[in-house]
Write a structure and sequence with these properties.
The complex is a heterodimer of chains A (534) and B (294). Chain A is mostly helical. Chain A is built from 15 helices and no strands. Chain A has a single domain, classed as Cytochrome C Oxidase, Chain A (Up-down Bundle).
Chain lengths: 534, 294
């Protein structure tokens, strides 16, 4: 508001924030914006989760019981879009906002007004997307991958959904540019690149992936729009185009996108495991190089999502080999985390439990990914529930579990109170058991041939679907425990110390808990910077 | 305000600002309006126009604050570097936006059109789905000429497009001369060279509009002319949109120069616009070679 009043004292911004709604609407403070992102992600997590429960309810038994097939398909489509663009990505940007300036000793993000903009786009973009449920023809139902020609049969929802994607992309690019400028320009003196906490490293790599791929998605959906409304024939063979061309362009975005979702998770786990093993991270520099290698490889593997579309053999082979190569840097990371725990003096607070669950379950998701990466094998698995099981292992027990781990890890720093450890552990154990009941049987269903994105199925799939649905409902409702923990933690609890965790290292633990509204207006002393390798 | 200079390590963190929200609301209205128009709602254009007006208002408000803060000396070198990085990576994201459309062009020319014509594994496709179709670029004879209209001929490289190439390359030269003039504090030359750059930008757009008219009315070349027309208009249209943005940005810089803004050492806005202009220029070279020439 008052940004035009430049004549006011330059040091005004050291004051505490204004009160009320305008504070949140106009804020340029990285902690405020981080909080907004995290709360938004939590809300969208439940919105997308509700859609998932509609899916699992319909699939509880064979036959059509509760929703019509069109609505079911809308559920799978919008569930994915909400969870990816509304749940996981905003959660990571929230973590980045809160933690990166504190981790590198910066007073704020580099471009604070842009930062406000990237957040406030989100509620508006999702308004565009969610209102499509009320338009003639319903919400998009062609799958989140928006493949033509199917998606071009969407009713009035299509332009709204496409512009929502454009809007979300703009938000992501702005957020990513901010992270790049912050990390490369705002580090405290002495915070050299190879001293950066791994969360900062993985986020900077994520930011580059975002800047490089979100515009490609924007281009792809723009061509959908012109094909539908302006007579172009990018994806119509009758005019010389090709529907498969959309898939290539989409997955050139789509595969880096999955690393956008998981790389910050690697950073969070790399912060938590050393803390609770009370040892420095094993192989810091190899972690940095492994993350960068994964990001590089992510640009040359995209067509493994399309093995069955009829590519030339050379393409199938190339994309199979590059895909399998990703296992090497990922393996480096997994072994490094295990080696960090080796002979450590370990304790098992909630963040550590989630981090260890991440390690085990993400590895399972990685292995099923290897299976899918082998071209001839993928011909059998393609578009079955095996794929659904695979990407939910890497995204739910991978990305979402590490979001939970990070939230428990830094909640005391954010709120100044310790969370309820008993409730946290209960949340963890109920989640980790139910999520496996939910997703593990889907491997069996897929191997037995159950196709994905289908509201009804043959009776031989009935038993495991019922088990999976039971797991789904327990998992979904058990997340309310997390909300209880967060609310309790904000309202009160045991006072947290500055360091919070005995084994914690890094600049964010040198400031008070809760972190003051402005931190590191003067950079920390170089001696306070330990660095990731210590 | 002198304090900002007093401590070069003091990074300027702005007060709260309403402008990002205004930007969001205006873009939201434009998107909602345009979408509503596409599905046949009569209020769509009005909502979109209202959003556009709000957007322009926002540009004055947001950039106005930044300009006032900059002229007041609140931005130290570190803030300047943040802006530079922001602009650099924004331009890179735009490069990737164009890459999607160039990718579509290359994919069509190298893969999908020859496959429909029977190359590779496409023999059966050609024989049974599109019999009689042979792949020749530019794709004048379409696989299904009932679904899409055929064009008479394409726009050759060595007419208007060659003039436009010369115009844009010249404008890259003039904007660089303006930069030299700014650095040597020759304000008159700065304004002169900048005005020349803006004029060249407008001239480019004029010629491009003429060419579009020629394509529409005499060559029957439209977005509905199969993959050639689709890629042609998507690439040149998106580029033309960027030239328009660039010309507006140059005009703003020109107005600021006339008002006496910028110093020989401190003129990020000028450089940001110049980078953007060079980017638009380089993209045009890609268009000239791959869309018009070969």
């Amino acid at each position: 508001m008052s940004d035009t009043h430049i004549a006011t004292d330059h040091h005004d911004h050291h004051d505490e924030p204004a009160r009320g709604f305008m504070r949140w609407l106009t804020t340029t403070n990285h902690k405020d914006i981080g909080t907004l992102y995290l709360l938004f992600a939590l809300v969208m997590f439940f919105v997308g989760g509700a859609m998932a429960l509609v899916i699992r309810l319909e699939l509880f038994q064979p036959g059509l019981q509760f929703v019509n097939p069109q609505f079911f398909n809308s559920m799978t489509t919008v569930h994915a879009l909400v969870m990816i663009f509304g749940g996981v990505m905003p959660a990571w940007v929230g973590f980045a906002n809160w933690m990166i300036p504190m981790m590198i000793g910066a007073p704020d993000m580099a471009l604070p007004r842009l930062n406000n903009w990237s957040f406030w786009i989100l509620p508006f973009a999702f308004t565009l997307l969610i209102t499509t449920f009320f338009l003639p023809g319903g919400a998009p139902a062609g799958g989140w991958t928006l493949y033509p020609p199917l998606v071009l049969q969407t009713g009035d929802a299509l332009p709204f959904a496409i512009f929502a994607v454009h809007f979300l992309g703009a938000s992501s690019i702005a957020g990513a540019i901010n992270v790049v400028a912050t990390v490369f320009n705002m580090r405290a003196p002495g915070m050299t690149l190879m001293k950066l906490p791994l969360f900062v490293w993985t986020w900077i790599i994520t930011a580059f992936l975002l800047i490089a791929t979100m515009p490609v998605l924007a281009g792809a959906v723009t061509m959908l729009l012109t094909d539908k409304f302006f007579g172009t024939s990018f994806f119509a063979a009758a005019g010389g185009g090709d529907p498969v061309m959309f898939q290539h362009i989409f997955w050139f975005f789509g595969h880096p996108e999955v690393y956008i979702l998981i790389l910050p998770a690697f950073g969070v786990v790399s912060a938590i495991i050393p803390t609770f093993a009370r040892k420095p991270l094993f192989g810091y520099s190899s972690m940095v190089y492994a993350s960068a290698s994964i990001a590089f490889l992510s640009f040359i593997v995209w067509a493994h999502h399309m093995f069955t579309v009829g590519m030339p053999l050379a393409g199938e082979l190339f994309f199979m080999y590059t895909t399998i190569m990703i296992a090497v840097p990922t393996g480096v990371k997994i072994f490094n985390w295990v080696a960090t725990m080796w002979q450590g003096s370990m304790t098992f607070e909630t963040p550590m439990l989630f981090a260890i669950a991440f390690l085990v379950l993400f590895t399972i998701g990685g292995f099923s990914g290897l299976m899918l990466g082998v071209t001839p094998v993928d011909f059998q698995y393609h578009d079955t529930y095996f794929v659904v099981a695979h990407f939910h292992y890497v995204l739910v027990t991978g990305a979402v579990f590490s979001i939970m781990a990070g939230a428990y890890f830094w909640l005391p720093k954010w709120t100044g109170h310790m969370y309820d450890e008993k409730l946290g552990k209960l949340h963890f154990w109920v989640s980790v058991i139910s999520v496996n009941v939910l997703f593990f049987p889907q491997h069996f269903l897929g191997l037995a041939g159950m196709p994905r994105r289908i509201p009804d199925y043959s009776v031989q799939f009935a038993d495991w679907n019922m088990v999976s649905s039971i797991g789904g409902f327990v998992f979904g409702f058990s997340q309310l425990l997390f909300v209880v923990v967060v609310i309790k933690c904000i309202r009160g609890g045991v006072k947290a110390t500055d360091r919070v965790w005995e084994g914690a290292h890094g600049l964010e633990w040198t400031v008070a808990s809760p972190a003051p509204y402005h931190t590191f207006n003067t950079p920390p002393a170089p001696a306070a910077i330990e660095g990731g390798m210590r | 305000m002198a304090q900002a200079h007093a401590n070069p390590n003091d990074y300027y963190v702005p007060h709260g600002s309403i402008w990002p929200t205004v930007a969001t609301v205006s873009i939201f209205c434009m998107m909602l309006g345009f979408s509503s128009f596409l599905i046949g709602k009569s209020f769509g254009p009005y909502l979109g126009a209202a959003g556009f007006c709000l957007f322009v208002f926002m540009l004055f408000g947001w950039f106005g604050s930044v300009i006032r803060e900059s002229e007041a000396g609140l931005y130290n070198d570190k803030v300047d570097i943040s802006f530079r990085m922001g602009m650099t990576w924004f331009i890179f994201s735009e490069v990737m936006f164009f890459a999607a459309f160039f990718g579509a062009l290359f994919y069509a020319r190298i893969y999908s059109v020859p496959w429909i014509g029977g190359e590779g594994n496409g023999a059966v496709t050609n024989q049974f789905l599109w019999p009689g179709f042979s792949a020749v670029w530019p794709l004048q004879q379409l696989p299904d000429s009932f679904a899409f209209t055929q064009f008479k001929e394409t726009i050759g490289a060595w007419g208007v497009p060659a003039y436009n190439t010369a115009i844009l390359l010249t404008s890259g030269f003039t904007v660089t001369m303006a930069h030299w003039a700014l650095k040597s504090n020759n304000r008159k030359a700065l304004i002169g060279w900048l005005a020349a750059t803006v004029a060249l930008g407008i001239f480019f757009l004029y010629l491009q509009a003429q060419e579009y008219g020629h394509a529409f009315h005499e060559l029957d070349l439209t977005m509905n002319s199969g993959i050639y027309g689709a890629t042609f208009f998507m690439l040149t249209g998106f580029h033309g949109f960027h030239v328009t943005m660039g010309t507006i940005m140059l005009a703003v810089i020109l107005a600021r120069s006339i008002k006496g803004h910028f110093t020989p050492k401190h003129h990020f806005a000028f450089e940001g616009v110049a980078w953007y202009w060079h980017f638009v220029d380089v993209v045009w070279l890609g268009l000239f070679i791959f869309v018009y020439w070969i």
